[in-house]
Amino acid sequence: MKRLAGKVAVVTASTDGIGFAIAKRLAEDGAAVVISSRKQKNVDNALAELRKLNLNVHGLKCHVSEAQDRKQLFEETISKYGKLNILVSNAATNPAVGGVLECDEKVWDKIFDVNVKSSYLLAKEALPYLRREKGSSIVFVSSIAGYDAFELLGAYSVSKTALIGLTKAAAKDLAPEGIRVNCLAPGIIRTKFSKALYENEAANEAALSKIPMGRLGTSEEMAGVVSFLVSEDAGYITGESIVASGGMSARL
Fold first, then answer.
1. SS3 186
2. In the prediction, which pLDDT does 251 show?
3. Domain holding 89: CATH number?
4. How many domains, in total, are found in the chain?
5. CA 19 to chain centre
6. What domain range includes position 116?
7. SS3 147
8. Which of the following is catalytic: 81, 129, 147, 156?
9. pLDDT tens track for 166-214
10. 140-149 per-position pLDDT tens digit
11. pTM, whole model, 2 decimals?
12. Residue 53 belongs to some domain of the structure
């Protein structure tokens, strides 16, 4: 018996990188998984790849900042599978680099709208469905930058700190109902999103110098953590942020 058999999961921003790896792993572990992305083409390509593996997946376009898209995401999940057990909120953006107090107000608003507000709204809108099922859970994808801000990702780092706080607050609220809320805080993972941290030799050396394990992480390693957090193996874990960073320091 696969440990997520009979579960239904929604994973946002799940057609590439960490999100795609999470969707793939949850499906491999037995869940029916609904993937999404801002672009339908990306959804179609990801679905084709996952279905080649005979995985039970569905997908649709969803811009997490759009209320109608979020509504459709959950309504279509219920229409297709009849229930929702797991929400993984992975969508994030970082349209500019610089120190936190150098950030333009419009850029700040964009980062917090996608990274924090949308995560909050997704969880709130998923809650009526999660309440119907025993052992439901939510996972927010934060970052080690939420503990120790990256120099050129000031506003992004603060948004990821906010997700750690959201995890703790929501976990306390929902624990009496049996709904667990946890957080994944990846270190430097080799994805398109983080390529600026490793794409040239100097950047790569600087990144590796901060990682005791001496290598970047993989999306598959992050997916394994999430699969654990949403499984019954983690049934007594809520309100926690799991740092998967190859040993990088993570202290608030």
1. strand
2. 73
3. 3.40.50.720
4. 1
5. 6
6. 8-244
7. coil
8. 156
9. 999 999 999 999 999 999 999 999 988 777 777 778 878 888 989 999 9
10. 999 999 999 9
11. 0.95
12. yes
